[in-house]
Write a structure and sequence with these properties.
Bacterial polysaccharide co-polymerase-like; four-stranded antiparallel sheet; Rossmann fold; about 500 residues; alpha/beta; 3 domains; 18 helices
């Protein structure tokens, strides 16, 4: 794992790293505060070398040092614990409890043995150390009785009681808690990055689809309540991103310009209807006569986004109930015309694959320079695949951090199976890891609501009409209840949830 990947993992899961560090540190501090302080009392013995005619002083000293290790074991033995039970000040401690409170030690190359007693009660720690000083030498002497040479223990220091607690070690515990929390946080960040199969980069998209990324859209906080680009957002970063998509589509094939485009995605809530709507707006902004067709006949959103009426539209034309001119709605004073979905049909796929819709689009292509067709998600239903034969190509919308690589590969495979031409992929709802601005040299104005750091997730299932007063809504040029906000007799079709 290189430094770039390391940094990416930390940036994506910094909140988890911080949370686990705080949790680990806080838990260690809490435990340390809950543990009762312990005090230490010490008593030190001097091991007198054995004396005898057959032992020289050097050999006696070496023998005493060798026996020191045995005495360390005896200090925590059952034999000594039995002698200490019931001693004055020891209280009702059992043998095992006494053994657990004694910590023996010895200095290297010396004949000094120290017994350290730790206890939450200072008087009891001192009493236990005093009892060890009184009972340990007789225990050793008794075990060595009858030996030709034997050592003798003398208390040379103590018993002494420390003035300050020796535990718990709060600083050490908090440091360990910090390190454990940091390790858990980094592990979580790396595992989250390694196990994440969602699409986040252009390289992943191109590898999965074989198509280029023609645009990257980052939604700001305002995009959730206002999906479409209005006049006050015309020079925003978001609007410029859609213009970049428009430019890339215009130059997709100079010899064979793209005039009709199907917009789809793998699954719902990836922002395809928002992309289709804003793409139509920026094409109309460039002076083209644009028709936006709401061909998502299952969960239509386009008319709601634009604040138009969708009770009568495409399905009614295909059923022969109304003429096409009666349901076309112009949005504001722009070159954008909208063909709403109309009544929700029981058989959307059959309608989109009928001869009637082919004849209808042949007529519409003669009247409009650009046709944008919003269709349902491709993987749950076949509507988009069926509709792709009506257009010059397909634009696939991918949601940053949500669409999986496997789903995107299946989407591309489905489009290839019907010989659809994939014009490109739009990476939508990009959550910028680095603050990006297009207006660094003053070319574009940025409203406060377009701050790139306030990226949110636009849920396509929540329809929000255009803000009142931002663009005037007009009735259809031929009335018949299809006007935006008009008072026609047709009632809005019930929207599916």
């Amino acid at each position: 794992m290189d430094l770039r990947t390391f940094g990416r993992a930390i940036r994506r899961s910094w909140w988890a790293v911080i949370a686990l560090v705080v949790l680990g540190t806080g838990f260690a501090l809490y435990v340390s505060e809950r543990i009762a302080p312990t005090y230490a009392a010490k008593v030190t013995f001097f091991v007198v070398p054995p004396s005898g005619s057959d032992t020289n002083p050097f050999q006696a000293q070496q023998l005493a040092q060798m026996q020191v290790n045995s005495y360390l074991g005896l200090l925590t033995s059952d034999g000594l614990a039995k002698r200490l039970v019931g001693q004055p000040g020891v209280g009702d401690l059992t043998e095992s409890q006494i053994e657990g409170r004694i910590s023996p030690s010895a200095k290297a190359n010396t004949v000094l043995v120290t017994a350290t007693v730790t206890d939450t009660s200072p008087p009891r720690a001192f009493a236990l150390a005093r009892a060890i000083g009184a009972q340990f030498p007789p225990l050793v002497q008794g075990l060595a009785s009858g030996a030709s040479t034997s050592t003798v223990l003398h208390v040379v220091s103590g018993p002494t009681l420390g003035k300050f607690p020796v535990g718990p070690h709060k600083t050490l515990n908090v440091g360990l808690g910090f390190l454990v929390g940091l390790a858990l946080g980094l592990t979580f960040a790396f595992l989250r990055l390694l196990l994440d199969t969602s699409v986040r980069t252009a390289d992943q998209i191109e590898a999965a689809t074989g198509a280029a990324v023609i645009g990257s859209i980052g939604y700001v906080k305002a995009a959730r309540r206002q999906p479409v680009i209005l006049e006050d957002q015309a020079r925003s970063i978001r609007a410029e991103a859609f213009r970049q998509v428009r430019t890339n589509l215009q130059f997709a094939n100079v010899d064979r310009p793209v005039r009709s485009i199907v917009v789809t995605s793998s699954f719902a809530a990836e922002g395809k209807s928002t992309v289709a709507t804003n793409l139509a707006i920026v094409f109309a902004e460039a002076g083209d006569r644009v028709l936006l067709v709401e061909a998502d006949l299952r969960r239509p959103r386009v008319a709601d986004y634009l604040g138009l009426e969708r009770a009568v539209g495409l399905t009614n034309v295909l059923a022969g109930q109304v003429a096409i001119d009666e349901v076309l709605q112009q949005w504001g004073t722009s070159n954008l015309t909208v063909l709403a979905s109309g009544s929700i049909p029981p058989n959307p796929s059959e309608l989109l694959g009928s001869d009637n819709i082919r004849d209808l689009f042949a007529n519409l292509r003669e009247r409009f320079e650009v046709i944008i067709i919003d269709t349902p998600p491709l993987l749950p239903v076949t509507d988009a695949a069926v509709a792709s034969v009506l257009a010059d190509g397909v634009v696939v919308v991918v949601r940053h951090g949500k669409t999986s690589t496997a789903n995107l590969e299946q989407t591309a495979k489905t489009l290839r199976s019907v010989d659809a031409r994939v014009l490109g992929v739009v990476l939508n709802m990009r959550k910028s890891e680095v603050k990006r601005r297009y207006d660094g040299y003053g070319y574009y104005e940025t409203s406060p609501s377009d701050t790139p750091t306030e990226i949110v997730e636009d849920i396509e299932g929540e329809s929000r009409p255009a803000r009142p007063g931002s663009r005037p809504r007009q009735r259809s040029r031929h009335g018949a209840g299809a006007g935006a906000g008009g008072s026609g007799n047709a009632k809005p079709a019930e929207q599916k949830s």
